[in-house]
Design brief:
It contains twelve helices and ten strands.
Length: 304
């Protein structure tokens, strides 16, 4: 699967991510998701060709993190590009568009992705409430100190062992992941002043997930409110309280992000993007795009 086959940014489930990565990155040994559909881990050291490493834009239905013990890498979260210099961890929440652009030849560490259903026995656990690094608006990079690296690496070694063992022990996997996140949270220098508005934040999180899944189908707030079984006014109130943006702001942000990625990476022309993404005439789409970005779609394409 690639962006030109689907003519949109692919959203990958647990099984599709293996094929997607294998067409772009060679891992030796190859570890698939067949046995553990809600959890996966690889050693970065096992990437056969780091010099030509690149994973094209995509989004996943699960969270991931990228622990860099040695070397450097460049990865995106939404429209923002981040240079990761070891020792550090990069966190990416589910349904965020991402591209992994580069990895230095000396890179060492671990890549892991997982679904929140792995924590189903933790009652009402919401990762983005407990850990700031799983929030959509947060800086995805956590810098680590030398005394933290050994602890984190031992947990990741254990996770890799559990992942490759014959028996699938979901309980052990989930408790080790939670231990890892607690260790990182203890040294996290990201602002932790986030107020726990649980109901508002949960609705906002579900809304963002719905945007990631249905942006090609729905461009009206009322449609997303129906999907979430709330009123448009309540949806807007929750989003505004949680992140100080309106529901319409987030919808526009997602449309612009999707449009920019299609302009940059797909073979679609502006007219095709206008119809496929917004069901608009090219002129209306161009006006919307310029109002949001300050550039016409053509001007943006020329800058890419």
């Amino acid at each position: 699967m690639n962006i030109n086959d689907e003519k949109k940014i692919p959203t990958l489930d647990y099984y599709e991510i293996s094929n997607f990565h294998l067409h772009q990155v060679e891992w030796l040994p190859i570890i698939t998701n067949a046995k553990h559909p809600d959890f996966h881990i690889n050693k970065i050291d096992d990437i056969a060709d780091k010099k030509n490493f690149n994973v094209l834009p995509h989004r996943k239905i699960f969270h991931d993190f990228f622990f860099l013990k040695k070397g450097s890498s460049i990865r995106t979260k939404g429209l923002n590009s981040f240079t990761i210099n070891a020792p550090a961890i990069f966190f990416l929440p589910a349904y965020q568009i991402t591209e992994h652009k580069m990895m230095s030849e000396d890179a060492e560490g671990y890549y892991c992705h997982f679904g929140e259903n792995i924590f189903d026995f933790f009652s009402k656990l919401i990762l983005s409430e407990r850990y700031v690094f799983f929030q959509y608006q947060s800086n995805p990079i956590i810098k680590l100190q030398p005394n933290n690296i050994e602890i984190i690496e031992k947990i990741l070694e254990r996770l890799l062992y559990l992942h490759t063992s014959k028996e699938y022990n979901k309980t052990l996997l989930s408790f080790h992941l939670m231990t890892l996140f607690e260790e990182i949270n203890a040294v996290c220098t990201v602002n932790k002043t986030f107020e726990k508005r649980k109901a508002n934040f949960e609705i906002t999180k579900r809304y963002k997930h719905a945007l990631g899944k249905h942006i090609y189908e729905f461009q009206n707030i009322s449609d997303y409110a129906n999907l979430l079984n709330v009123t448009p006014n309540y949806l807007n109130k929750c989003v505004k309280t949680a992140i100080d943006k309106t529901a319409q702001d987030l919808l526009k942000d997602m449309l612009v992000l999707e449009a920019k990625t299609l302009i940059k990476y797909s073979q679609l022309n502006v007219s095709e993007i206008a119809i496929k993404l917004c069901n608009q005439t090219p002129s209306n789409f161009a006006r919307f795009f310029k109002k949001q970005t300050g550039l016409s779609p053509k001007e943006y394409a020329e800058e890419c």
